[in-house]
Amino acid sequence: MSALGDDHPVALVTGSALGIGRAIVEALRDAGYVVYASMRGVEGRNAEAAQSLKAQGENRVHRIEMDVLSEESCQAAVEQLCHASGRLDVVVNNAGMLMNGMAESFTPRQFLSILDTNAVSWLRVNRAVLRAQGRGTIVYVGSTTTYVPEPFIGLYQASKAAGDALARAMALEIRPFGIESLFLVPGAFPEGTDHFADAQSGDDPERTISYGALTDRLPALTGRIETIDREEGLELAVRSVGEQLAQALEKPVGERPSHVFIDWASEGRRCHRRGRRASPIALHREAGIRRPSTGV
């Protein structure tokens, strides 16, 4: 990656079609970046989203085909970008997926699938961009669930924790080469994204029968998180994620925060500072989680 060249810095954002990815593209565009918005199906399933991003971009947003599950696709996209722009200053690893349900209902194959998307994909993208020389910043879109355990999203939490551990190690390895790492840690955004709507469920639902009424608590959790947001007076606008990233990147190199948290209870930030994981008891009660001695 290079910090030299034209006046406008260049950013690559993965998973840009909707939600947080799109918000990041728009915020970086407004901050003066030339943004390459990568996604699968630029001419297919995401054609409408890709076209609208380009139309709003005032020649500062470029669509680019990129499948983070394919190393060849990642390498081809980065080569195309570097050939066109001659530089790459910021890479945002955002593409991800959610699996929602009792952990036991998911098959090992499903677990490997979410690990591939939420953790291994970061390695693929990094291997492609780190071949370019110079300075720059790699951004990882993580999750507060890495710090705050929650029921019903165990596979998602494990995959994001795996990605976080990989990214932390790589951050130490690439720092001597002048490449910074920044961790963007949003909480749940029930509105403004398709994260919950597109969440996959377990392929083995019969495994959940023995959990009884506990499984009925799952649909209510999303609404409860949204209610907490409103009670706390927080905006649910997903654009705030992109705006806070843009603000962090405005700071001079060496003065940027390592982590930027955007979560409803600030639990992730507090636990990161204390070096431990939180136990959100109130949310667990809402989910119907009790101590083993009292039964389910």
Automatic annotation (TrEMBL):
<comment type="similarity">
    <text>Belongs to the short-chain dehydrogenases/reductases (SDR) family.</text>
</comment>
<dbReference type="Pfam" id="PF00106">
    <property type="entry name" value="adh_short"/>
</dbReference>
<dbReference type="InterPro" id="IPR002347">
    <property type="entry name" value="SDR_fam"/>
</dbReference>
<keyword id="KW-0614">Plasmid</keyword>
<dbReference type="InterPro" id="IPR051911">
    <property type="entry name" value="SDR_oxidoreductase"/>
</dbReference>
<protein>
    <submittedName>
        <fullName>Short-chain dehydrogenase/reductase SDR</fullName>
    </submittedName>
</protein>
<dbReference type="InterPro" id="IPR036291">
    <property type="entry name" value="NAD(P)-bd_dom_sf"/>
</dbReference>
